[in-house]
């Protein structure tokens, strides 16, 4: 095989690997989170629907009610934004999690630059 053909084949393989790297996990389902803050631990429920590397769904907690989320999965990382319930209501929360196993997450939530908290998540089966 010539060097040019080999180089082209390696380039195609690299692009194929990069394209599929973001879709290693399907996180669709119901997740129980534990968000540990200075004020105690909250237990929101996250309902995710994943299509390719995009995730959408709902986040439901006693403190904030039900809110929509949108985000992405890339490799072993899930990132999503929890939108305010209405215009001018609440802050945008940004969650970033490491996918530990198919059914567990751990990460950090940023409270719009005003601090944050650690969290874990377990998929409910």
Describe the structure.
By secondary structure, the protein is an alpha+beta fold. It has a single domain, classed as Lipocalin, CATH 2.40.128.120. Helix content is 15%, strand content 54%. It contains one helix and nine strands, in the order H-E-E-E-E-E-E-E-E-E. An eight-stranded antiparallel β-barrel has the order 1-3-4-5-6-7-8-9. Strand 4 and strand 5 (65-74) form a beta hairpin. The N and C termini lie far apart (50 Å). Residues 6-12 and 14-22 have low confidence and may be disordered.
Give the structure's gist in a few sentences.
The protein is α+β, with helices and mostly antiparallel strands and 125 residues long. It has one domain (22-123): Beta Barrel (Lipocalin), CATH 2.40.128. It has one helix spanning 3-21, and strands spanning 29-37, 40-42, 45-51, 54-61, 65-74, 77-82, 93-101, 104-111, 116-123.
């Amino acid at each position: 095989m010539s060097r040019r053909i080999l180089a082209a084949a390696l380039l195609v393989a690299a692009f194929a690997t990069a394209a599929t790297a973001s879709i290693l996990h399907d996180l669709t389902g119901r997740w129980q989170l534990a968000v540990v803050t200075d004020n105690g631990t909250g237990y929101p429920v996250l309902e995710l629907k994943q299509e390719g590397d995009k995730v959408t769904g709902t986040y439901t907690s006693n403190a904030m009610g039900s809110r929509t989320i949108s985000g992405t999965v890339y490799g072993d990382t899930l990132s999503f934004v929890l939108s305010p319930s209405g215009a001018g209501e609440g802050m945008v929360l940004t969650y970033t999690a490491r996918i530990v196993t198919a059914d567990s997450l751990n990460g950090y939530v940023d409270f719009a630059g005003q601090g944050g908290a650690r969290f874990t998540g377990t998929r409910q089966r």
